[in-house]
Amino acid sequence: MPLSLYDASIPVYAHMLRNLAALLDKAEAHAVATGLPLSELTEARLAPDMHSLVGQIQLASDAAKGGAARLAGVTPPSMPDTETTYEDLKARIAKTLTFVESIKPDQISEDLERTIELPLPKGSMKFTAKDFLLTFSLPNFMFHVTTAYALLRHKGAPIGKLDFLAGARG
Questions:
Q1: C-alpha closest to that of 139 among 16, 27, 7, 43
Q2: Topology given in CATH for the domain delimited by 5-110+117-160
Q3: How far is it, in rounded angstroms, from Cα 130 to Cα 11?
Q4: pLDDT tens for residues 13-43?
Q5: Pairwise CA distance, residues 82 & 139, whole Å
Q6: Residues facing 124 on adjacent strands
């Protein structure tokens, strides 16, 4: 049986959202143990012109829910970017995971060539479903998850590659 768009998307988004939540938990435990204020984590940036951890989590959430929704042909849930605390970020990940996991295989057409249009403030981008997933949605999602990992690691969280890859599995 060939790999489906569903198999290449929804389980990947869900797995990495669970891992992102596990990374946040490990970083929080480290912060509490060392007396590091959680605001040091939420406000962390790799460069002045990059988003903070808050922004990286919001953008990872947007990429996962938007990717899943567009592949399924449904409207993604609205999640205004109002998170400011660590608890807010964990709740956003949980809400995103719940939505992503609500998408079922029969909701995603296997027509790899169907058009997916991504609205942007100054126009839109059009992709085939295959290209949307493989060249835009997954890379964008992974960029923000990876950057969140890097921010937490940079701030001393005792996390490593296996936490990133298999964090929620143990």
A1: 16
A2: Four Helix Bundle (Hemerythrin (Met), subunit A) (1.20.120)
A3: 16
A4: 999 999 999 999 999 999 999 999 999 999 9
A5: 24
A6: 119
pTM passes above 0.85: yes
**For residue 6, which of 73, 89, 82 has the smallest C-alpha distance?**
73
What are the sequence ranges of the domains in the chain?
Answer: 5-110+117-160
Contacts for 77 with CB less than 8 Å, ≥ 6 apart:
65, 69, 95, 99
Helix (H/G/I), strand (E/B), else coil: 24: helix
Q: Measured at the alpha carbon of residue 145, what is the angle toward residues 144 and 146, in degrees to the nearest 5?
A: 90
pLDDT given for residue 2 in this prediction: 84
End-to-end CA distance of the chain: 29
Nearest to 104 by CA among 139, 133, 69, 137: 69
